[in-house]
Amino acid sequence: MKKLFYFLLPLLFAACAQQQETPILTIEGGQVQGVAADIEGVTVYRGIPYAAPPIGDLRWKEPQPVVPWEGVKIADTFGHPGYQAVHYPGGYTTEWGYGKESPYSEDCLYLNVWTPAPGKTDAKLPVALWIHGGGYREGWGSEPEFDAQEWAAKGVVLVSINYRLGVFGFLTHPELSAESPHGVSGNYGILDQIESLKWIQKNIEQFGGDPANVMIFGQSAGAGSVKTVCESPLSKGLFNKAVIMSGGGITNPNAAPAAPSGRMGRFYFPTTLAEAEQATKKVMDWAGFDSLEKMRKASTEMLYTAGNFYATVTGDRTGVVTGRPIVDGYVSLQSFDNAAYADALPNIPYMIGYTQDDMGDMAPGIAEFCLNRESVGGKAYAYEFARPLPTDHRPNVLEGAFHSSDLWYVFKSLKHCWRPWTQGDWDLSEVMLTAWTNFAKYGDPNGPDGGEWAPYTKDNASFMLFKLDENDQENSETGDPIPSQNRRFPF
Question: Could you tell me the residue range of the domain that residue 180 belongs to?
Fold first, then answer.
């Protein structure tokens, strides 16, 4: 027994020393202490609240000030993801390993910070805010592919967030609009994202970050969120770079057809606030929630399922519970497309792209956005991820360079995945990680001295293609987008 004790004693001392070496930071709400990441020199802070829990009377309210805590919060556990459906095996569940995270909850306004310089307020490192995708109805900022310690090792302070989803993040209703001092409802999830940007402005120096050098980036619905945040007047001055990943581009209003093309375009096609309010009211009245008081007292589960129950029982598909951003005249003044053509977007560098087997061919809309930026004196870098992911051919897995497949590479989080990666995949991941972190630092994916990847313009109509060659060697280069060989939408 004594031998075992003496054997364990150094380990205990080492663990204590490691904890003591992690500085205690004073931020909005109280004191917080992080834990060491796997990469030496990187500290991660998990589950920091950035607003009050949006529950009870705060359900469908703008984010409220964080509730202070006593003592030192040990930030070693990720916060609750926004409430969402249970995930079953297959497809993206197999890819990301759903079901192993914190319980889903309406109490979800938590963020995570990876940093190489905690407590060094004069470090002035660039900051990146990651907004996860998931159709505005699922996902969370601590999914395994979003492990951001490699970003911190590159000298970027990365913040990932959870935000309200689905009926809790985007519900519109006449009574909610009547209650609002701005006369609107919905977009609560977008308000959460903007609140996290405000949190960064107030607190990120404690983590070694520079509040004057902030990049926002997101994929899929996270990219759609980036678009809305860019267009929103409420986010003015809170960031100075943006990356749009697999969220489409813009549609030339003079092109035919007039409506956005492809599944992603239709997904983000706007609905008026008045229409959305009445569609939601029809469902809520039918479910017995015919007053705002009853809606706020209703259980999480009942509210979440009300829309589906209504459609199943009545056969009426016109009653729709809002589950995505909407132009409301307060958070969002107009569509991203209209804002681009009106030169109402921030005059900042953009990076925008998609995957080879994405949710439709996004290349034309991305090219149009880049040309639009050029026309107003801005710049945008276009890319395509064209590496079909290796597989061991287990059943019910996604194949090709599918929607979201680039995430493993951008975060260089391949070690968390079951796929049989080649050395080329690791090399490609390093290339992409370097490009994204360079963009966060300099607004140029090449770095401070420039390089091969030039902005997409009329005279340089080319995408950066991230791919391997036939020998599984990294072979990225500029050129025309590669036509998809798969084109099977993952959902």
Answer: 12-267+327-479
Secondary structure class of 121 (helix, strand, coil): coil
pLDDT at 488: 52
180 with 198, same domain? Answer: yes
Chain centroid to CA 184: how far? Answer: 24
Confidence at residue 101, expressed as pLDDT on a 0 to 100 scale: 61
Q: What is the pLDDT of residues 396-446, one digit of tens each?
A: 889 999 999 999 999 999 999 999 999 999 999 999 999 999 999 999 999
Count the domains in the chain: 2
> Within 13 Å of residue 196, how many CA atoms lie on the same side as its CB?
33
Residues 278, 263, single domain; the answer is no
What is the model's pLDDT at position 317? Answer: 81
Q: How far is CA 140 from CA 8, 56, 57, 146, in A?
A: 37, 22, 24, 9
CATH code assigned at 162 = 3.40.50.1820
Whether residue 249 is found in the same domain as residue 308 = no
Examine the domain organization and report whether 250 and 388 are in the same domain: yes
- 463-466 and 72-74: which strand pairing? unpaired
Q: What is the DSSP letter of 51?
A: S
Sequence-separated (6 or more) residues with CB below 8 Å from residue 407:
145, 146, 219, 413
The DSSP call for residue 5 is: H
What is the reported pLDDT for 261?
Answer: 42
Residue at 192 is within a domain? yes
Quick one: 72 and 196 in the same domain?
yes
How far is residue 292's CA from residue 275's CA, in Å, rounded to a whole number? 18
Stretches where the chain sits below pLDDT 50 are: 1-19, 256-270, 489-491
**What pLDDT shows up at residue 486?**
60
Eight-class DSSP state of 280: H
Q: Given this model, what pLDDT does residue 270 score?
A: 42
Which structure tokens are listed for 405? 């497949």
Q: Are 245 and 387 members of one domain?
A: yes
Neighbours of 346 (CB within 10 A): 19
Task: Judge contact between 220 and 134, C-beta under 8 A.
Answer: yes
For residues 345 and 370, is the Cβ–Cβ distance under 8 A? no
